[in-house]
């Protein structure tokens, strides 16, 4: 007798804010220019990338696919749905782990000049499939990604 796995769909919304001591233009380049983005997004030493592409335009796609050392294969596929230069980036993206679709999300990155730098606000709404804890893990993961962005900007401020 086989058992059918329990299926669930768990929504999760979160907002992360970080202020960086750089100009809006500098942060925009870090988010949008291929070489800049590659320096902090998905550049973990313990990740072997098999497919990486970044087509920054409305309708363009970004793909990051690879395997964590001693771990699962991860696939991220995003489509840019709205871009307002130096102001916001909106994407819709899907994630797979070992070929299993785990989530579909919409994300907005908003840049606002503030005294001493620029505030980045990330708003995300996701539907996590068959993993009630997936949203909380995603939120923690994006906190780490923003830490990597901060380190990159600190080491290369202009």
UniProtKB/TrEMBL annotation:
<dbReference type="Pfam" id="PF08327">
    <property type="entry name" value="AHSA1"/>
</dbReference>
<dbReference type="InterPro" id="IPR013538">
    <property type="entry name" value="ASHA1/2-like_C"/>
</dbReference>
<protein>
    <submittedName>
        <fullName>Toxin-antitoxin system, toxin component</fullName>
    </submittedName>
</protein>
<comment type="similarity">
    <text>Belongs to the AHA1 family.</text>
</comment>
<dbReference type="InterPro" id="IPR023393">
    <property type="entry name" value="START-like_dom_sf"/>
</dbReference>
<feature type="domain" description="Activator of Hsp90 ATPase homologue 1/2-like C-terminal">
    <location>
        <begin position="22"/>
        <end position="154"/>
    </location>
</feature>
């Amino acid at each position: 007798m086989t058992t059918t796995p329990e299926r669930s769909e768990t929504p999760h919304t979160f907002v992360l804010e970080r202020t960086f001591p750089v100009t809006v233009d500098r942060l925009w380049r870090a988010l949008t220019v291929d070489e800049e983005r590659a320096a902090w997004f998905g550049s973990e030493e313990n990740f072997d990338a098999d497919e990486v592409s970044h087509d920054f335009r409305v309708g363009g796609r970004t793909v990051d696919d690879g395997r964590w050392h001693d771990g699962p294969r991860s696939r991220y596929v995003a489509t840019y749905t709205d871009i307002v230069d130096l102001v916001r980036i909106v994407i819709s993206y899907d994630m797979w782990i070992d070929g299993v679709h785990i989530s579909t999300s919409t994300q907005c990155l908003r840049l606002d000049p503030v005294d001493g730098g620029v505030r980045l606000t990330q708003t995300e709404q996701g539907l996590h499939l068959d993993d009630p804890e997936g949203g909380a893990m995603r939120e923690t993961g994006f906190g780490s990604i923003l830490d990597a962005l901060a380190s990159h900007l600190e080491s290369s401020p202009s």
